[in-house]
Every structure is written in C-alpha cells, then in structure tokens.
Amino acid sequence: ITVTRAVVPPAIKAWLSTARPMLIDGKWVKAQSGKTFDVFDPATGEPIASVAEGDKADIDLAVKAARRAFASGPWSRMTPSERGRIIHRIGDLILENADELASLEALDNGKPKAVAKAADVTLAADMFHYMSGWATKIEGKTIPISALAAPGAEFVSMTRMEPIGVVGQIIPWNFPLLMAAWKLGPALTTGCTVVLKVAEETPLSALRLGELILEAGVPAGVVNIVPGFGETAGAALAEHPDVDKVAFTGSTEVGRLIVQAASRDLKKVSLELGGKSPNIILGDANLELAIAGATAAIFFNHGQCCNAGSRLFVQRNIFDKVVEGVAAQADKIKLGHGLSDDTEMGPLVSKVQYDRVTGYLASGRREGARALCGGEGLGGAGYFVPPTVLVDTKPNMKVVREEIFGPVLVATPFDEVDDALIAEANNTIYGLAAGVWSGNTGRAHQIANRLRTGTVWINCYHVFDAALPFGGYKQSGWGREMGQAVLSNYLETKAITTRLG
Ligand code: ADP
C-alpha cells in the first residue's frame, strides 16, 4: 500500500509546531525534567509532534494541585447547577471544535477522520452533555431506623453522596478523546478533581480537550492532564498516596499492575479491561444484516476495541455463506491514511501493535488456521494490517483464546443452540460484550440471559450510549462506565443520624 502523506490542516500544523506542554493547576507547563517524547503518524511512521514527558515529579505536582482544588473548592463547593453548566459547556466546545478534534484523532491514532467525527467526537460531547445533567440529581435518602439499642429514642437518618476526592485516571490509545470523556465526565459531575494520564501513543486530542476544559470555566487544578509513559507516569499515579481512587482503561495485564499499585493504600479502583467477545449468528437471522453486523463488530476501529466481536459463532447451515460474506465485505474495505477522504480503515496505532497483531497471524498459520481474506501485515512504513477472517480454528488456539486487539476474526460453526454453544461462548477469561443475531427475539433474549458479559447486543453491535452502563464480568473489569451506574465509582456514601428531641 502506498500512503500519501496527509495534508495536515494549517491550524493543527501551527498547534503542533511547538512541543505540547502538560496541564497542571490550570497552567500549561513543561515537564520538571525538561524531557519531551515524539508522537508518530501511524500511517507513515513519521514524527508529527513532541509532547512534554511527565513522570513522578509531574504527577506529584498534579496530585498536589488536584488535592488543593478539592480541599479548598471552588469545584467541590460549587452549586451543582453551576457545575453542571460548566460540564455542559465542555460538550458544546467539543462540538464547536469537532472538525479539528477529528483531524487530530485521525493524525495521531490513524482512524478515518469521518469515523472520528461521527463516533469519537460526537459521543465525547454527548458524554459531557449527559453527565452535566446528573450534577443536580445526585441524591441521598432518608432511612427509617430502629436503633434497637436505644429504646424510646427518636432519630432521623439520611445519606449524603459525597465526591470520593482526588481521582487518578489512566486511559489507552484506541479512542483517545472518547476515553478521556468517559473518565472526566462522571468525575467532574460528582465533584471530584482529576489527574488524567493519557496514552503515550495518542496524547494530542486530550491535550486539546484540556484547553477546551479551561475555556469552559473549569477552575485551576480540577483537571490536570499529564502525558507520559505507563511505567513512569502511570505507575506513579496508580501508587500515589494522596490519590483516593484510580480509574483505569487498558489491558487486563496492566489492570493487574494497577490493582497491585493501588493495594498498598487500599485505594478504590475501577477497571475497564480486555475482551474476546462472542458474536453468535443463528440460522434464522436476517443474513444481510448479520453479515454486515459481524463485519462491523470486528473491523470497526481496526479491531482495536475492547468489545470487538472477535469470536464469530455461526449455525452450520449458513456458516459458509456468512463467513464468505464477511470476507467479501472485508476485502472491499479501503485502507489508507486517516486524513484521506476515501479511507475506511487506517493503520494500527503503532509498531508495537503491528508486531503484536502480525505475530498472532503467524501463530494462527502455524497452528493450522486458514485465512479467507487478509492474513498478513502489509509491511512498509505505516502499520497496516488488512481485515482478516480465520476459519478451521480449534478452541485451544492462541488466536481463539487471546485478545488480539486488531482486525482479526476467528469463525467457528455450531450445530444447535444448546448448552455446548453457550459454554463455548462463555469459554474465555473475559466477559465484556457479546452479540446475538436471530429472527426470533425471544430466543435471542434467552441466549442473552445466559451470556456472562456486561453488554449483549441483539441484532446490532457497537451501540454505545452515554446513558447505558458499559463494563465487564470476569477479567474484563470492575465497575461500570457511563449511565447512572458510573456515578458510584466516584461517590462515597455518608450516613448521618440525628437524635431528635
Ligand atoms: P494497550 O495494550 O492497549 O497499550 P495498556 O494497558 O498497555 O494498553 O495501556 C493503557 C494505559 O495504561 C496507557 O496510558 C499506558 O501508558 C498505561 N500503563 C501501561 N503500563 C502501566 C503501568 N505499569 N502502570 C500504570 N499505567 C500503565
């Protein structure tokens, strides 16, 4: 594949012409060490920007700022309606700058700009808009108590929901802006203050978001954004003694490290981790819908989704038709630079990911899987891997067991909707998402009820909404993102009892 260099919009070029600083205590500052790191265009492998490299010293300053902002207000003491209005304004500013943010995302992550605009940017704005409404609706209860040890006395008891405090948030590179929104939205609406460590592969859109957050009126120190590497900045944040809670999205492996780091001080932890999601197509499904759906389920965002429908199970009488249909659609997906108008799929995010995914393809070949399309990396300067459909797989193959996080689907036929099918669909350490395709919705619901996953999509896939909780069973995580459910990640419950009379 020959990838022409992107025409970078002039405003972005100007913004990237100086090293991007980090956001600490309302100011844009260099790293304490003075160090910067390069950020690359994954379609060409060329550097596009340099960014301040945060490490422990910067995390210390950021946590100090977040603590001061939490302890002395004005954020946690601001009226809920005022806080909500500011959060809503962040959503408005994201939409006003949608084109620029989508371009940055395409350049930095590699995804097509049109997709970034329609999905990442739109959903990020909606997350702030949705969460802004909760600011005024976080309520406690009055609870009738019996107080058996104080006979005759009268009490009134109530609960107050309070922000958990200073939150450390660590996010990955697959949806850089959207993951920042998923994390910041609920933390802000509950009145927490934040230190956000963005992924070293893709720091740019979150840094631009930081500018919009200040413009919206978020006070200094409430949101601090520190770009840097996982083992330095990330680890320092996860183990910082003055951080009350850590929220992490990323690999299950690193999730385990986060839990270890947070365990010394028994910090609260929420985790959104990996997946190997089953997508099940029954013989009575609408085939046109199911084939397009199965294609999008795995290939959206180049398969770099924790919830990608990466294990396809198809009833045997339609198996050949479905996998050939998916392979034919996959073959038509146009690969190219994220900033080119006709690109439908960009490169993988980095050389590391390219090597990882092509390593899985080699392992699949060695173990006897057959590629109906794709099957090998394209080589060259960019990190392009074509959409790949593997058949003739066995349940114990690495490509079936492990999360690939790339555009690789493994497809297996099944005979009946029975316990064996459900057991195989659930036969994974993960439990993030699943899909079921059937003309018989009642039957699809029966299957949905038996899948051990935090999300099930019936006759659709990748439908996300700020109002819907998302998260994992088993080793896919702890807690939920989005919806009302996410608020509990950021709140403490205080019970107050008053003796009457
Ligand atoms: P991926 O495999 O998708 O790159 P990772 O789990 O490696 O996902 O990374 C997700 C985020 O976690 C990134 O911001 C990364 O810098 C950070 N990270 C990686 N290692 C650590 C660590 N040991 N401690 C804290 N954060 C880390």
UniProtKB/TrEMBL annotation:
Residues 28-496 form the Aldehyde dehydrogenase domain. Keywords: NAD, Oxidation, Oxidoreductase, Potassium. GO terms for molecular function: aldehyde dehydrogenase (NAD+) activity. The active site is at E272. The keyword Methyltransferase does not apply. This is Putative aldehyde dehydrogenase DhaS. Belongs to the aldehyde dehydrogenase family. The keyword Oxidoreductase applies. It is an enzyme of class 1 (oxidoreductase). The lineage of its organism: Bacteria, Pseudomonadati, Pseudomonadota, Alphaproteobacteria, Hyphomicrobiales.
